[in-house]
């Protein structure tokens, strides 16, 4: 692991937005507002790293993962993949992106076609992208992929229902690796597995990353698992990345009050620690992404809210002692774009990161 | 120690399935005292949920065979007449399940569902029941309970729904609360709120709690005692400190080793348990864990079922017990 500053950026989002129209009921179905699932995300993923993306349900982490691969169309901002503008890609370029960037999904029971054998499932990307042409070459590659994820090559002719959850997830990973991707998005890839099986899949992902030099975006609500696999961690709240930095720094010294509360809520299997620790219990629920609070979006639940919070939308700025540790919080100095009120003259735009 | 609230003795559950008889729970014994929290942990298929469904008569009669004894305040739940059992659920035992959306009726308001339980267990006027429902929603920390009472489940967030379910479970001030993966579907910050809530109510009312979960972190925070289930058997039990800090059974150790740990993160690979849990239709002879066990240090492992025996310094009121032939002494 080198320091982020020396590393090459593989995937980059700037001001990325995915807004879904909110329509009124009734016959006219007028657009009455926007659900801001992803709302101004600035994020870099460095080549060869594992970036953990955490946040609670509805914070937009899955939508962000999808938007980076253009599986949902962004409504604003830019995404680049290895220097290429993903939002502007044509069909051919997009197909190449699909080969170079794979996805591992949460539910291995839903993401595999029950009527296809493992071999058919894993070889499909090979056919689509014209890799390893010829039936025998493809079959050989499938065997190689299955062995890579720790499955016996003999399972190729079997169907998904014959496998346990952990084995299915391995099949899903083998398929995602078929096109020899540079980048893999794992969206809650271990969430539906039992603890002992989770550990097997986590170890596998780490091994594959080292072996193949993969770049991983590991999306999960399980902060312990994210801490275990990630080089860096990004924390999302209500459509925005609010803190990002080296995994150890974010986990041990979160700088933004939401990240602090989130980390403090993670139970650890040590009775002594659990009894003595102070949990920060947040008030209320996450606001609807259709009604994002003005200024800092966390201010309605923040225990440390003060004057500038409703008026200035904070941007990511360097915090703490670790290099590359950024947080969007006015406690570290008021930096950001003033909120536009009814009166004219306020500057427009969300502002760029201060880093 | 005062008399236990619940005494389960040699509970066994067999389910008839197309693939043969599934031995889902195989001789489970434990007690829950007033104000005590007993955590039942295990992976999917270990029998942890079925073991409590059986206590409450919630398994399908035609396919399930339940034997053993389960004394709730001295009365055997397993031999109770259905009519009597229905009276006991509610004031005796409250239940909270994993998914609040499936425990709530989507076409009835929250208030309607809460008052139904209240009025079923006592002569309460409509108005009084409604007032009590509002009070309960306030107690579980729902904002603006006066309005929430007229809402439908889909208008509430997951955390709020689970609070409603908890309010329903607590409506008749049960002596025992059973929480089956009650916070598994919730985010950690909401989970922290719910755990806080249950602990507070428990302190106020002296409720005994059975907390079923696979999350050992949650267990560390809430449990007084822990019971580890595998293959329908209790393989280890004891105080939360004994079981989590000084595990003896190779399965418990494996489970703890497989857990990524926020508190002691390091770069090493996680320990894994090879293979998958046994099918309840086809349990191994001998120790249930031996086919996956990294130790297998005794000739009896494959043939003779180890009894749940006191280990370590043990003894006392809450002995640390494990069912293994291979107790390796104290863990690191």
Describe it:
The complex is a heterodimer of chains A (355) and B (332). With 355 residues, chain A is of the alpha/beta class. Chain A has a single domain, classed as Rossmann fold, CATH 3.40.50. Chain A is built from 10 helices and 14 strands. The radius of gyration of chain A is 22 Å and the shape is globular. The two termini of chain A are 21 Å apart. With 332 residues, chain B is α/β, with parallel strands linked by helices. In chain B, 30% of the residues lie in helices and 22% in strands. Chain B contains 11 helices and 12 strands. Chain B has helices spanning 48-55, 82-88, 100-103, 110-120, 126-139, 145-148, 158-170, 188-205, 216-222, 240-245, 250-257; strands at 6-17, 20-32, 37-41, 64-72, 75-76, 93-96, 176-180, 208-213, 225-230, 233-239, 309-310, 321-322. Chain B is globular and about 70 Å long. At the A-B interface, helix 6, helix 7, helix 8, helix 9 and helix 10 of A face helix 7, helix 8, helix 9, helix 10 and helix 11 of B. Chain A: Keywords: ATP-binding, Nucleotide-binding, Transport. Chain A: Belongs to the ABC transporter superfamily.
Summarize the structure.
With 355 residues, chain A is of the alpha/beta class.
Gross morphology of chain B is globular
The total beta strand count of chain A reads 14
Q: What value does the Rg of chain B take, in angstroms? A: 21 Å
- Helical content of chain B stands at 25-40%
Corresponding CATH superfamily of chain A: P-loop containing nucleotide triphosphate hydrolases
The computed structural class of chain A is: alpha/beta
Tell me the count of domains of chain B: 2
* Share of residues in helices of chain A: 25-40%
- Give the CATH architecture of the largest domain in chain B: 3-Layer(aba) Sandwich
Report the β-strand fraction of chain A as a percent range: 15-25%
CATH topology category name of the largest domain in chain B: Rossmann fold
Total domain count of chain A: 1
* Overall CATH class of chain A: Alpha Beta
Major sheet of chain B: 8 strands, mixed
- Order of strands across the biggest sheet of chain B? 6-7-8-3-9-10-12-11
Mean pLDDT of chain B: 87
> For the record, what CATH class of the largest domain in chain B applies?
Alpha Beta
Protein name (chain B): Peptide/nickel transport system ATP-binding protein
Family (chain B): Belongs to the ABC transporter superfamily.
InterPro entries (chain B): AAA+_ATPase, ABC_Ni/Peptide_Import, ABC_transporter-like_ATP-bd, ABC_transporter-like_CS, Oligopep_ABC_C, P-loop_NTPase
Keywords (chain B): ATP-binding, Cell membrane, Membrane, Nucleotide-binding, Transport
């Amino acid at each position: 692991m080198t320091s982020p500053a020396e590393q090459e950026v593989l995937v980059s989002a700037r001001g990325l937005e995915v807004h879904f129209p909110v329509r009124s009921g009734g016959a006219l179905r007028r657009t009455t507002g926007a659900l801001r699932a992803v709302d101004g995300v600035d994020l870099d993923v460095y080549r060869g790293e594992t970036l953990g993306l955490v946040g609670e349900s509805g914070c937009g982490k899955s939508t962000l993962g999808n938007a980076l691969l253009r599986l949902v169309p962004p409504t604003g901002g830019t995404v680049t993949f290895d220097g290429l503008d993903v939002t502007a890609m044509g069909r051919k370029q997009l197909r190449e992106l699909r080969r170079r960037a794979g996805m591992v999904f949460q539910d291995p029971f839903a993401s595999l076609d029950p009527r296809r054998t493992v071999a058919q499932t894993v070889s499909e990307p090979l056919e689509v992208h014209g890799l390893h042409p010829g039936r025998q070459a493809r079959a050989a590659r499938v065997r190689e992929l299955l062995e890579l994820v720790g499955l016996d090559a003999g399972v190729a002719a079997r169907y998904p229902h014959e496998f346990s959850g952990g084995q299915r997830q391995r099949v899903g990973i083998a398929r995602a690796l078929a096109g020899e991707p540079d980048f893999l998005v794992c969206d809650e890839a271990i969430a539906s597995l039992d603890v002992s099986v989770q550990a097997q899949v986590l170890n596998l992902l780490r091994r594959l990353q080292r072996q193949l030099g993969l770049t991983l975006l590991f999306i999960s609500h399980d902060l312990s698992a994210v801490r275990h696999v990630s080089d860096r961690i990004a924390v999302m709240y209500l459509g925005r990345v609010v803190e990002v930095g080296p995994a150890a720094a974010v986990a041990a010294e979160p700088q933004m009050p939401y990240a602090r509360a989130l980390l403090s809520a993670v139970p650890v299997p040590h009775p002594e620690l659990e009894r003595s620790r102070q949990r920060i219990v947040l008030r209320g629920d996450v606001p609807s992404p259709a009604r994002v609070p003005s200024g800092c979006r966390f201010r309605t639940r923040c225990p440390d809210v003060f004057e500038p919070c409703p008026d200035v939308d904070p941007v990511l700025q360097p915090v703490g002692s670790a290099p590359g540790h950024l947080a969007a919080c006015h406690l570290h100095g008021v930096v950001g774009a003033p909120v536009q009120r009814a009166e004219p003259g306020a500057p427009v735009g969300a502002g760029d990161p201060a880093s | 120690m005062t008399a236990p609230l619940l005494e389960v003795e040699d509970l066994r559950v067999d389910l008839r399935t197309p693939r043969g008889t599934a031995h889902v729970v195989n001789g489970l014994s434990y007690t829950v005292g007033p104000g005590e929290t007993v955590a039942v942990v295990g992976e999917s298929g270990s029998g942890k949920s079925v073991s409590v469904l059986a206590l409450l008569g919630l398994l399908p009669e035609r396919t399930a065979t339940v034997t053993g004894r389960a004394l709730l305040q001295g009365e055997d739940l397993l031999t109770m007449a259905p009519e009597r059992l229905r009276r006991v659920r509610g004031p005796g035992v409250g239940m909270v399940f994993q998914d609040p959306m499936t425990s709530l009726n989507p076409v009835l308001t929250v208030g309607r569902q809460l008052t139904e339980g209240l009025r079923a267990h006592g002569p309460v006027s409509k108005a009084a029941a409604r007032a009590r429902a509002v009070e309960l929603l306030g107690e579980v920390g729902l904002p603006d309970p006066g309005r929430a009472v007229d809402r439908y489940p889909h208008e509430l967030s997951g955390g709020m729904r689970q609070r409603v379910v908890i309010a329903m479970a607590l409506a008749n001030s049960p002596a025992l609360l059973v929480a089956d993966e009650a916070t598994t579907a919730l985010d950690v910050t909401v989970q922290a709120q719910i755990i806080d809530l249950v602990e507070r109510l428990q302190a106020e009312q002296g409720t005994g709690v059975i907390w079923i979960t696979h999350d050992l972190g949650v267990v560390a925070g809430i449990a007084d005692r822990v019971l580890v289930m595998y293959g329908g058997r209790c393989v280890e039990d004891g105080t939360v400190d004994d079981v989590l800090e000084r595990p003896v059974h190779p399965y418990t150790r494996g489970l703890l080793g497989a857990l990524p740990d926020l508190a002691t993160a390091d770069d090493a690979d996680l320990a894994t348990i090879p293979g998958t849990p046994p099918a309840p239709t086809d349990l191994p002879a001998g120790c249930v864990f031996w086919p996956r066990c990294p130790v297998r240090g005794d000739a009896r492992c494959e043939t003779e079922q180890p009894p749940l025996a006191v280990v370590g310094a043990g003894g006392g009121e809450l002995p640390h017990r494990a069912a293994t032939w291979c107790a390796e002494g104290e863990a690191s």
